[in-house]
Amino acid sequence: MDIETLRNYCISKKGVTEGLPFGPDTLVFKVMGKMFALAGLDAIPLSVNLKCDPEKAIILREEYENNILPGYHMNKQHWNTVILDGHLKPDFIYQLIDDSYNLIIAGLSKKQQQELKDLDE
Question: What's the pTM value of the predicted model, to 2 decimals?
Protein backbone atom coordinates (compact mmCIF):
# COMPACT_ATOMS: atom_id res chain seq x y z
CA MET A 1 0.00 0.00 0.00
CA ASP A 2 1.32 3.46 -0.88
CA ILE A 3 0.76 6.77 0.90
CA GLU A 4 -1.88 7.97 -1.56
CA THR A 5 -4.00 4.83 -1.09
CA LEU A 6 -3.66 5.15 2.68
CA ARG A 7 -4.47 8.85 2.58
CA ASN A 8 -7.48 8.46 0.32
CA TYR A 9 -8.94 5.76 2.54
CA CYS A 10 -8.44 7.75 5.74
CA ILE A 11 -9.84 11.03 4.43
CA SER A 12 -12.88 9.26 2.96
CA LYS A 13 -14.11 8.61 6.50
CA LYS A 14 -16.67 10.91 8.08
CA GLY A 15 -15.31 13.88 10.02
CA VAL A 16 -11.65 13.25 9.16
CA THR A 17 -9.08 16.00 8.75
CA GLU A 18 -5.42 15.68 7.91
CA GLY A 19 -2.43 17.76 8.86
CA LEU A 20 1.26 17.90 9.66
CA PRO A 21 1.29 19.00 13.34
CA PHE A 22 4.59 17.26 14.11
CA GLY A 23 6.49 18.55 11.10
CA PRO A 24 6.64 17.86 7.37
CA ASP A 25 7.41 14.15 7.64
CA THR A 26 4.44 12.88 9.68
CA LEU A 27 0.96 12.98 8.18
CA VAL A 28 -1.72 12.85 10.89
CA PHE A 29 -5.38 11.92 10.41
CA LYS A 30 -7.90 13.02 13.02
CA VAL A 31 -11.59 12.51 13.60
CA MET A 32 -13.23 15.30 15.59
CA GLY A 33 -9.77 16.55 16.53
CA LYS A 34 -8.50 13.20 17.87
CA MET A 35 -5.70 11.27 16.15
CA PHE A 36 -6.46 7.84 14.76
CA ALA A 37 -3.65 7.39 12.21
CA LEU A 38 -0.12 8.77 11.80
CA ALA A 39 2.00 7.98 8.75
CA GLY A 40 5.73 8.61 8.47
CA LEU A 41 6.17 10.14 5.04
CA ASP A 42 9.91 9.46 4.94
CA ALA A 43 9.70 5.89 6.23
CA ILE A 44 10.83 3.14 3.89
CA PRO A 45 8.86 0.97 3.88
CA LEU A 46 5.81 3.09 4.61
CA SER A 47 4.38 2.62 8.09
CA VAL A 48 1.32 3.89 9.92
CA ASN A 49 0.55 4.12 13.63
CA LEU A 50 -2.98 3.00 14.47
CA LYS A 51 -4.86 2.87 17.75
CA CYS A 52 -5.79 -0.65 18.84
CA ASP A 53 -7.56 -2.40 21.69
CA PRO A 54 -4.73 -3.39 24.09
CA GLU A 55 -5.60 -7.11 24.14
CA LYS A 56 -5.97 -7.26 20.37
CA ALA A 57 -2.70 -5.33 19.96
CA ILE A 58 -0.77 -8.11 21.71
CA ILE A 59 -2.40 -10.80 19.57
CA LEU A 60 -1.70 -8.90 16.34
CA ARG A 61 1.94 -8.31 17.30
CA GLU A 62 2.41 -12.01 17.97
CA GLU A 63 0.69 -13.13 14.78
CA TYR A 64 2.30 -10.52 12.50
CA GLU A 65 5.59 -9.99 14.35
CA ASN A 66 7.41 -8.55 11.34
CA ASN A 67 4.67 -6.16 10.27
CA ILE A 68 2.82 -5.07 13.42
CA LEU A 69 4.98 -3.61 16.16
CA PRO A 70 4.39 -1.58 19.34
CA GLY A 71 3.53 2.00 18.36
CA TYR A 72 6.62 4.04 17.57
CA HIS A 73 6.70 7.19 19.76
CA MET A 74 3.21 6.31 21.05
CA ASN A 75 1.64 4.60 24.06
CA LYS A 76 2.71 1.06 23.23
CA GLN A 77 -0.27 -0.44 25.04
CA HIS A 78 -2.80 1.33 22.80
CA TRP A 79 -0.98 1.93 19.51
CA ASN A 80 0.61 -0.30 16.87
CA THR A 81 2.98 0.58 14.08
CA VAL A 82 1.88 -1.26 10.96
CA ILE A 83 4.57 -1.79 8.31
CA LEU A 84 3.06 -1.46 4.83
CA ASP A 85 5.63 -3.42 2.83
CA GLY A 86 3.19 -5.59 0.87
CA HIS A 87 3.03 -8.52 3.29
CA LEU A 88 -0.38 -7.51 4.72
CA LYS A 89 -3.45 -7.60 2.51
CA PRO A 90 -5.10 -4.23 1.81
CA ASP A 91 -8.46 -5.37 3.24
CA PHE A 92 -6.72 -6.31 6.50
CA ILE A 93 -5.02 -2.89 6.65
CA TYR A 94 -8.35 -1.18 5.98
CA GLN A 95 -9.87 -3.14 8.87
CA LEU A 96 -7.06 -2.00 11.19
CA ILE A 97 -7.70 1.62 10.11
CA ASP A 98 -11.44 1.16 10.69
CA ASP A 99 -10.77 -0.29 14.14
CA SER A 100 -8.59 2.70 15.05
CA TYR A 101 -11.18 5.18 13.75
CA ASN A 102 -13.98 3.42 15.63
CA LEU A 103 -12.00 3.31 18.89
CA ILE A 104 -11.53 7.07 18.71
CA ILE A 105 -15.23 7.65 17.99
CA ALA A 106 -16.19 5.43 20.93
CA GLY A 107 -14.06 7.64 23.20
CA LEU A 108 -15.67 10.90 22.07
CA SER A 109 -18.16 12.69 24.27
CA LYS A 110 -21.84 12.15 23.45
CA LYS A 111 -21.94 15.72 22.13
CA GLN A 112 -18.99 15.11 19.79
CA GLN A 113 -20.49 11.80 18.63
CA GLN A 114 -23.72 13.63 17.78
CA GLU A 115 -21.78 16.38 15.95
CA LEU A 116 -20.03 13.69 13.91
CA LYS A 117 -23.33 11.96 13.18
CA ASP A 118 -24.84 15.29 12.04
CA LEU A 119 -22.06 15.96 9.53
CA ASP A 120 -23.15 15.71 5.88
CA GLU A 121 -26.79 15.12 6.81
Answer: 0.94
